[in-house]
Amino acid sequence: MFIRRQLLLAAGAIAAAAAVVPAQAEETVKIGLIVPMTGGQASTGKQIDNAIKLYMQQKGDTVAGKKIEIILRDDAAVPDNTKRLAQELIVNEKVNIIAGFGVTPAALAAAPLATQAKVPEIVMAAGTSIITERSPYIVRTSFTLPQSSTIIGDWAVKNGIKKVATLTSDYAPGNDALASFKEHFVAGGGEIVEEVKVPLANPDFAPFLQRMKDSKPDAMFVFVPAGQGGNFMKQYAERGLDKSGITVIGPGDVMDDDLLNNMGDAALGAVTAHLYSAAHPSQTNKEFVAAYKKAFNNRPGFMAVGGYDGIHLIYEALKKTGGDASGDKLIAAMKGMKWESSRGPISIDPETRDIVQNIYIRKVEKVDGELYNVEFATFEAVKDPGKTKK
Amino acid sequence: MTSLFTILFDGVAYGMLLFVLACGLAVTLGLMNFVNLAHGAFAMAGGYICAVLVNNSGWPFLVALPLAFVASAAIGVVLERALYRHLYARSHLDQVLFSIGLVFMSVAAVDYIMGSSRVFIKLPAALEGQFDLFGVGIGRYRLMIIVICGFLTVALQLILARTRFGSRLRAAVDDPRAAIGLGINVPQVFAFTFAFGCGLAGLGGALSAEILGLDPYFPLKFMIYFLIVVTVGGSSSITGPFLASLLLGIGDVAGKYYVPKMGPFVIYTIMIVILIWRPNGLFGRTAAR
After folding, report:
1. Residue B278 neighbours by CB distance under 10 Å
2. Does ipTM exceed 0.85?
3. Does the distance separating the beta carbons of A204 and B139 come in below 8 Å?
């Protein structure tokens, strides 16, 4: 008798809880934001977090009648952490969307979970081509490395650069960048005179740079992770490569706006292809840069833009579904969505769920005493070449 | 041919830098028999102090360098008196656990205060760039490192071998009990030596910001290099780690230049070969302890 009463009570409690939970779930849309907030990639996470905060300040935290709740988790760019955190967020916190992902391995680690749980995974930073192919629930608002690397390859051939030495970090994005650059540059008649892959944790670039110098190229193609760019440019200048007429070209990660200003004049003249520059001359971007600077006392980089566009995509998709946050409906709503971002016009490719955007060729110049990537040529609506070849 | 000399020069500079960074560890580990994995934290402290002085307060770089030494040494004294000295008599495992904990605390603290991105120290224009000497490219900054570190090495060797303090230190290390009996103030000698080692690390940290890059993970990233220098060099003298640093510096730079595909492994290969040949390091005392 006693036991039965307890059971009844328990059952009642469960029923009550069950009645409360969905009601709550209808009111809020939870977004699990997994980014590196500590570790070597922390600047990526901080930019994305900042951008999302800024967006929600500007647009309010409710959309289509739903309150948006961001749950921030730090994975320190370690894929094992990412997977664990994604699982916790999906199972315990019952998030509707997971987002962020500072590096490729992190984005890949969460992909099977997104598929299983039918939860959209919005990739706001990681840039290897294959990511969106790993789950039908992945949508990307950042970029892919082949997008910028093929463009700089094409540009180099057309602008009188014949011989190039390459220096890339030895990990997936570096190899992606190298392969797609090489393909386009060599196809256009260029020659690779030297190819060096630098270990990811590399303290001193000196010997590699000396090798570059001795191979006497017209330009050197460089891809190192964002944080190492400054160190690289310093040593590039120290070794006098700037004076021996070897231009730095590459995807724009090296010249991240976040770090560019600290690199010193060594960076002047570097030509890179990328999706975003804080100096992009549109009105949308001017407002974005001003608001970001005001809020965080720093210039936004392309990671911040990836985050800002990512949250915008979520807002717009929710508007389109009328607040329905189920995975399939959101993904369907996101496919083919177009908008004017601070980087220029962008859209989500309905076939691949990857981003389609303009790629700009930029040169580092001094504007009002600060270093900026000044855009001087535009390749419009570039799809990810890493996929279209198939 | 000229690039061979440039590589040699870069290798020597890199090795010298490793030496200044690691010789404090050789002293604490070899002479005081204390496993201080937090050595890199003092190097990082020196680097950040120098960076703040130069970048924010506008001090000239060459004035900030000695201050990086003094400040790191001061931090060393405080920590030695407050924490380290309680662990001298403890097992090596305790020392390892304690000092690795200190490393994580320093990483978190610096990340919190200074942010996680890399810090650069603004150099005077005179130290930037390269000049040609008979066709060999000589980096000005690296030349300065060689000069400073070479001078320090000679001074250290002289202090240890020729001065009264040096003989006291050696006595205190060989047999602390007998040394106390002879009226040598052993704790004081140790405290001073420890502080000096920390100071050197701080100086090394300030010098290395330009070449190795300075961020909050510095103590973790370079711990392995310091340990390699000490194991390869043997920890019973200054000459051992010095030669080991040069060997590793030149080996690393030359390896990365001539066989870039093997680059990162060269330094480890050298270490393995040397340790198979001489398990106590180049100049290790066999079964000293």
Report:
1. 14
2. no
3. no
